[in-house]
């Protein structure tokens, strides 16, 4: 009828209705199909808001390092820039300058560190931001089934404790690290390197990602174009540490970047089954360091580089390599970075309870990246559960630390046996120089 209102055909439902209909049909697969990752993690993220509020309100806060942090930054506020003179209840200040600036801001926000409850809510925000960054990584890779994300957030008592009941600096460093990983995935390598360096300035554990990052930078840009990005990382460290370097450079470097710091045996999670004299032995530490470096080299030479390509080809500009350059996929970027960090965790001289956050959010990705087909979903979940149990056993026991090493070994072997990840499609890479996106 002319001039009349055109009605929708009853046989053509709206796109939204089509999606809802498909979701209803697949409801029994929502937790298993990776295309529903965004839906599941969105529900879990909003659920986490309530969980964190409940934990803060109902579970008693435990003082461990917060007061020491506040005493340390208070010394800087009062005009002391000599790192050897800065200390708190638990000992001297042993973190780089980025820690000082961030926790100085928290010092003022929380009324000189007295308003603990406000500090807990700030760390709850840090936790939620970290989850968003982690979930975006898993959404982009679409490798882990959605049901696993329940174990990534709601099921871990220890991670909630580290964030909102202990207020450690480790979560701040990891939040910045995951933000840098997101930038790397999007091709913002220079900005990502800056944020990565900022994470290192909060706590040195982030350096465990450095071998993987160096490999990726060389792969993407070659040696000459990698140097400016490494220079940016170093310059940021110098800039942040400048007030302390001007006062006592040796004191700052020796305290903030002390790679030989001795750990206390009573806090170890991973080496409880050793006698204390061996745990403290410097030769044992050197053996661990050698095993760490050897494993990194094996992965770099055998698992990370492309088949048939010499590792030394990475030093050349991509356009001058014998094999046409191919851009690293998101999967390759994430896998190399997470594996680099995990290898460091496997050979760490000691792991304390707050260190769990250093690799907790990467474990599902590593497990589902393994190349052992017989490692079924149930066995992967069992490994996650055993690792969680090991980190929740306090004090650690011979059994808990042994179980942790066995789980680490299984994951490491699975990563070694995994088939190489495919590079980006060749038609989009040939004759196209690698660009570093800018904000």
UniProtKB/TrEMBL annotation:
Organism encoding this protein = Seriola lalandi dorsalis
Q: Please list the reactions this protein catalyses.
A: an alpha-D-Man-(1->2)-alpha-D-Man-(1->2)-alpha-D-Man-(1->3)-[alpha-D-Man-(1->6)]-beta-D-Man-(1->4)-beta-D-GlcNAc-(1->4)-alpha-D-GlcNAc-diphospho-di-trans,poly-cis-dolichol + a di-trans,poly-cis-dolichyl beta-D-mannosyl phosphate = an alpha-D-Man-(1->2)-alpha-D-Man-(1->2)-alpha-D-Man-(1->3)-[alpha-D-Man-(1->3)-alpha-D-Man-(1->6)]-beta-D-Man-(1->4)-beta-D-GlcNAc-(1->4)-alpha-D-GlcNAc-diphospho-di-trans,poly-cis-dolichol + a di-trans,poly-cis-dolichyl phosphate + H(+)
What kind of membrane protein is this, topologically? Multi-pass membrane protein
* Protein's pathway: Protein modification; protein glycosylation
Q: What class of enzyme is it?
A: transferase
InterPro entries tied to this protein: Glycosyltransferase_ALG3
The protein's name: Dol-P-Man:Man(5)GlcNAc(2)-PP-Dol alpha-1,3-mannosyltransferase
One GO cellular component assignment for this chain's record is: endoplasmic reticulum membrane
Bilayer-crossing residues are 36-56, 93-109, 121-139, 145-165, 172-189, 195-218, 283-301
């Amino acid at each position: 009828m002319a001039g009349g209102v055109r009605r929708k055909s009853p046989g053509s439902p709206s796109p939204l209705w089509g999606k809802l209909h498909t979701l209803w049909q697949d409801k029994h697969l929502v937790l298993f199909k990776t295309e529903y990752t965004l839906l599941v993690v969105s529900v879990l993220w909003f659920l986490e808001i309530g969980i964190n509020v409940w934990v803060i309100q109902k579970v008693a806060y435990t003082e461990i390092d917060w007061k020491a942090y506040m005493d340390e930054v208070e010394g800087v506020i009062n005009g002391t820039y000599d790192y050897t003179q800065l200390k708190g209840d638990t000992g001297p200040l042993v973190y780089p300058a980025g820690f000082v600036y961030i926790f100085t801001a928290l010092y003022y926000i929380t009324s000189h560190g007295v308003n603990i409850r406000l500090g807990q809510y700030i760390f709850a925000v840090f936790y939620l931001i970290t989850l968003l960054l982690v979930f975006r990584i898993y959404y982009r890779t679409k490798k882990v089934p959605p049901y696993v994300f329940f174990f990534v957030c709601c099921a871990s008592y220890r991670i909630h404790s580290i964030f909102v009941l202990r207020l450690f600096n480790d979560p701040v460093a990891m939040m910045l690290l995951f933000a840098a990983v997101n930038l790397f995935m999007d091709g913002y390598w220079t900005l990502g390197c800056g944020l990565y360096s900022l994470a290192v300035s909060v706590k040195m554990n982030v350096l465990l990602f450095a071998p993987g990052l160096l490999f990726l930078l060389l792969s993407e840009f070659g040696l000459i174009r990698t140097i400016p990005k490494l220079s940016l990382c170093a310059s940021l460290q110098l800039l942040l540490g400048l007030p302390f370097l001007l006062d006592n450079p040796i004191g700052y470097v020796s305290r903030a970047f002390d790679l030989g710091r001795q750990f206390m045996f009573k806090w170890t999670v991973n080496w409880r089954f050793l006698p204390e004299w061996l745990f403290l032995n410097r030769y044992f530490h050197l053996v661990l360091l050698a095993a760490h470096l050897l494993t990194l080299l094996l992965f770099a030479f055998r698992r990370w580089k492309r088949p048939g390509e010499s590792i030394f080809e990475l030093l050349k500009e991509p356009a001058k390599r014998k094999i046409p350059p191919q851009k690293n996929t998101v999967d390759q970027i994430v896998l190399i970075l997470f594996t680099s960090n995990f290898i460091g965790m496997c050979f760490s001289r000691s792991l304390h309870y707050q260190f769990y956050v250093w690799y907790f959010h990467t474990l599902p990705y590593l497990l589902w990246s393994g190349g052992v087909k017989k490692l079924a979903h149930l066995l992967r979940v069992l490994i996650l559960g055993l690792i969680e149990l090991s980190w929740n056993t306090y004090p650690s026991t011979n059994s808990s630390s042994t179980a942790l090493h066995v789980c680490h070994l299984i994951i490491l072997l699975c990563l070694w046996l995994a088939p190489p990840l495919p590079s980006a499609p060749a038609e989009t890479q040939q004759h196209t120089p690698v660009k570093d996106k800018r904000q």
